[in-house]
Amino acid sequence: MSSATRAGEPTDEAPDAAKRRGRRPAGEDRRGDILAAARVEFGARGFDATTIRGVARAAGVDPRLVHHYFDGKDALFVAAFELPARPQQLIDGVLAPGVDGVGDRLVRLFTTVWDSDEGRQRIVALVSAASASEAGARMLREFLTREVFARIVARVGSDDAELRAALAASQMMGLALARYVVRMEPLAAAEPDVVVALVGPTIQRYLTGPLPAS
Fold first, then answer.
1. Is the backbone of residue 157 left (phi > 0), alpha (psi -120 to 50) or beta?
2. Could you please report the per-residue DSSP string of 113-171?
3. Which one of 3.10.450.710, 3.40.190.170, 3.30.2090.10, 1.10.10.60 gives the CATH number of domain 16-79?
4. What is the pLDDT of residue 155?
5. What is the DSSP string of 164-209?
6. What are the residue boundaries of the structural domains of the chain, listed by start?
7. Which pTM does this prediction carry?
8. Cβ pair 58, 37 in contact under 8 A
9. Residue 101 pLDDT > 90, yes or no?
10. Is 60 helix (H, G, I), strand (E, B) or coil?
11. Do the beta carbons of residue 80 and residue 138 sit within 8 Å?
12. CATH level 2 (architecture), domain 84-208
């Protein structure tokens, strides 16, 4: 007990001020700190080079806490950029009915998400970041090609998996840029069914159709 306390005098600072200067309670907005650090790390390093340990270090937390909140790097990426679902969930959904029509289902899935007000804001932010810097382009490219389309091609069992994934990803990125960022008409105002009918067969061909001999 201090001499001031023994003398019955008030302390120099209010309890609230002491709390503000003290250590934050364990877990207080730690998830938010991790997400903020993840956005910086993914943006600076790309998807492949970003690690859970690196995000934890940037957030000032133990890597085990990152694993506590997020089940893997793909889940962390999805949460950091507020994407609608993890890649595996998307893949399971579009492939469940079979290989036929997978292109249409992919385009419908993406346009359904992107056509919402919230979804439009997210895809515009992501594509704008990809257009503004090589780091942003690498981040989006690696995520789409390796975490989404490469997994679909692997499940489908097609040959030339890397090329097919790159072609499909380029088509979807081009669609996002033209329809939501540049807002190129009449594509920007086209009904989702029209977009699916036009773009779906191209995605299907890239994923499962014959490719020219190299």
1. left
2. HHTSHHHHHHHHHHHHHHHH-HHHHHHHHHIIIIIIIHHHHHHHT-SSHHHHHHHHHHH
3. 1.10.10.60
4. 87
5. HHHHHHHHHHHHHIIIIIS--TTTTTS-HHHHHHHHHHHHHHHHHS
6. 16-79, 84-208
7. 0.67
8. yes
9. yes
10. coil
11. no
12. Orthogonal Bundle (1.10)
Is residue 147 over pLDDT 90? no
In order of 78, 111, 130, 143, the CA distances from 188 in angstroms are: 25, 11, 20, 24
Torsion of CA 80, 78, 124, 144, to 10 degrees: 130
Distance CA(84)–CA(121), nearest Å, equals 13
Distance CA 106, CA 168 (A): 10
- Residue-wise pLDDT for 116-130, tens only, equals 887 787 787 778 777
| Residues whose CB is less than 8 angstroms from the CB of residue 40 and which lie 6 or more positions away in sequence, other chains included | 58
Judge whether 94 and 85 are in contact, CB under 8 Å: no
Q: How far is CA 27 from CA 23, 57, 62, 77, in A?
A: 11, 16, 11, 20
What's the distance, CA 192 to chain centroid?
22
C-alpha–C-alpha distance, residues 3 and 114, integer Å: 65
pLDDT surpasses 70 at 27: no
The alpha carbon dihedral of 122, 200, 130, 45 has a sign of positive
| Per-residue pLDDT tens over the stretch 168-187 | 989 988 998 899 988 999 99
CA distance 28 to 61: 12
- What are the DSSP calls for 81-100, one per residue? TT-SS-HHHHHHHHHTT-ST
